[in-house]
């Protein structure tokens, strides 16, 4: 006989909740940085820069490490300091001027920090997956619209396409409208699903990682699209094709929307 009875399921849920409880206790510690009104913006910038950093180091080492060539999507391209620094500068500037006031409002209006119990592991995993699928669908619709309407493309999305060969720090090189749109999709889904604040943090970390990986310019054996079966996940090679060809692969992560609407273009395996 397969399947669990209700008491076994209850035991599993309780143990998975206990598994996350120490982490949640650290997060909601009244003396921790997490309680600061600056936390969300510092968390967002730090996570982004930490995820970009290994790829920046690889780009710096690239001319002296020939073994990296086989993983580089554009072997003859390596970003220069004149490309890297404006991207980093724009991210910092936009976070201080635009993201910080929004996260401050969110902090002031959010009583969730007072929750004492951690989420269950299974609930956290399901919520993160659903948030990713919803974010993917919303950004797909936004992205198609901003490519099909020339005014929208010129005014709001063109800036993200300035780097046709992308690199990690170009991930958040975008207009303020695009940044807010992504932030809105990011925030509305966790609200709709009633996600636990710890789930929200985990979702943000995964979302930032996947977006940085999409723009990294490196196709490694452990890249996410190689770990997800049946070609369901496009990842770095798909998004790189979008940056070089403009008219395909509009979804940031998964492939089903582009497949359904005929805009999926497959990259040649490397
Ligand atoms: Zn685009
Ligand atoms: Zn992009």
From TrEMBL:
One cellular component term from this protein's GO annotations in UniProt: membrane
Q: Which GO terms describe its biological process?
A: lipid biosynthetic process
Compartments reported by the entry: Membrane
Transmembrane residues, as ranges?
Answer: 38-62
Cross-referenced InterPro entries, in alphabetical order? Answer: Fatty_acid_hydroxylase, Sterol_Desaturase_Related
Q: Name one Pfam family in it.
A: FA_hydroxylase
* Domain Fatty acid hydroxylase, chain residue ranges per copy: 128-263
Task: Report which superkingdom the organism of origin falls in.
Answer: Eukaryota
Arranged from A to Z, the UniProt key words for this protein are: Membrane, Transmembrane, Transmembrane helix
Q: Which GO terms describe its molecular function?
A: iron ion binding; oxidoreductase activity
The record's section on PANTHER family has:
STEROL DESATURASE (PTHR11863)
Please state what the protein is called: Cholesterol 25-hydroxylase
Q: What is the organism field in this record?
A: Trichechus manatus latirostris
